[in-house]
Amino acid sequence: MWMMLWLAIGLSITASAQPAELSPSERYIEQWGDEAVYQMALYGIPASITLAQGILESGNGNSQLAMKSNNHFGIKCHGQWTGEKVYHDDDAKNECFRAYQNAAESFQDHSEFLKKPRYESLFVLKPTDYKGWAKGLKKCGYATNPKYASKLVGLIEEYGLERYDEQGLTLAADRAAFAEAKNATDRQQRNTKRDVNARAKNPNKSGEVLSGIRSVQISENDIRYTLANGGESYESLAKELDMMTWQLYRYNGVKRTAQSTPYRPAAGETVYLQPKRARGQTDWLSMRQGESIWEASQRSGVSVKSLVRKNRLTEDNPLPESGKLSLKWRLTPEGKMPGWLRTIRGPNG
Fold it and tell me: Quick one: CA torsion of 174, 128, 32, 141, rounded to 10 degrees?
């Protein structure tokens, strides 16, 4: 009797320890969550709305229309559609629906479909206002079901799909930063070519600017700087360089109060004469032993604030565990480059 009881308890514990099987909707979300996030970064449509519509319109990807034609959003042919078509009974018999080579094309076409003037009022809403988007889709006539908006909201809240909206906003910001960096690189290449041509015409011209007897140079991150001789203060340097004292403190990230003594940079220490950048010229900076974030900021020309944000540093984790700082991209919570960037560059990028 006791043996049977213990056996029953053991089987119960074993069963409860097994991971719960995903529901059809959870499997759909797991499969298409990244695509919805990517579409949000491109078009501004909340990823939560895209996923909820996909679940509802395609029956978690298992509807006849989705299986037959990869159409996950029930988009009909309409007059201007020139792609593949299938015919399916819906509001009327034998209606024309769009067909795609794969489901990813359906997600892309869904985004482009919502960019039509008919839905332009939706893009006035915040991309995190999924309730407003759900009501707006119904109002604009996306679906005839009177409960369409409440069904979308119900799915979003049941599965916590709003978390994908935050991922979409982050990816959009990273894509904008990527474009900005590319533009900055293009500008720098043009400026470098111009400077090379100018020096070729005037070989006696130096690559540095002289202020009195002090050399002012340009860093690889395109910031004007000088090197301290040792013994001088920011106050004396400001007078020598015809600058305001507050500029040196702010540009170099040194705190200053009415009670603090003048800051004296060590001999050879970099003193920036312009604000540090939000991004570096390279992806990574390997930290030196015992180096602080401020010292890494001075070495890279990237502001402390930007380094902290990009590397998700906190008071509890003030230094990166990997020993490397990302200078360009905001890392994922796992400490990796953004997924879209890794997709573009490949596994070795």
Answer: -130
CA-to-CA dists, residue 123 to 162, 176, 190, 323, angstroms: 17, 18, 37, 42
Number of H helices, E strands in the chain: 13, 8
- What is the token pair recorded at 180? 């900005």
Q: Which fold has domain 25-169?
A: Lysozyme (1.10.530)
Residue length of the chain? 349
Amino acid, res. 252: N
Structure tokens at 183: 């533009």
pLDDT of residue 190: 62
Please compute, for residue 235, the number of CA atoms within 13 A of its CA located in the half-sphere on the CB side. 5
Domain extents in the chain: 25-169, 207-275, 282-349
Residue reference for tokens 């990997």? 322
pTM for this model (two decimals)? 0.54
Q: Say how far residue 329 (Cα) sits from the centre of its chain.
A: 8
What is the pLDDT at residue 205? Answer: 39
Is-contact 216 208, C-beta < 8 A?
Answer: yes
C-alpha closest to that of 37 among 107, 137, 142: 107
* 258 to 99, 252, 255, 261, 306: CA distances (angstroms): 70, 18, 10, 8, 27
Residues 249-293 have pLDDT tens digits of 999 999 887 777 899 999 999 999 999 998 898 999 999 999 999
Contacts for 145 with CB less than 8 Å, ≥ 6 apart: 151
Helix boundaries (H) for the chain:
2-17, 24-43, 47-58, 64-69, 103-114, 130-139, 148-159, 162-201, 234-240, 245-251, 293-300, 304-310, 339-345
Of 252, 82, 170, the residue nearest 243 (C-alpha): 252
CA distance 303 to 308: 9
**Distance of CA 151 to CAs 51, 76, 117, 140, 274, Å?**
12, 21, 24, 16, 54
The one-letter amino acid code at 295 reads: E
User: Are residues 297 and 253 in contact, defined by beta-carbon separation less than 8 angstroms?
Assistant: yes
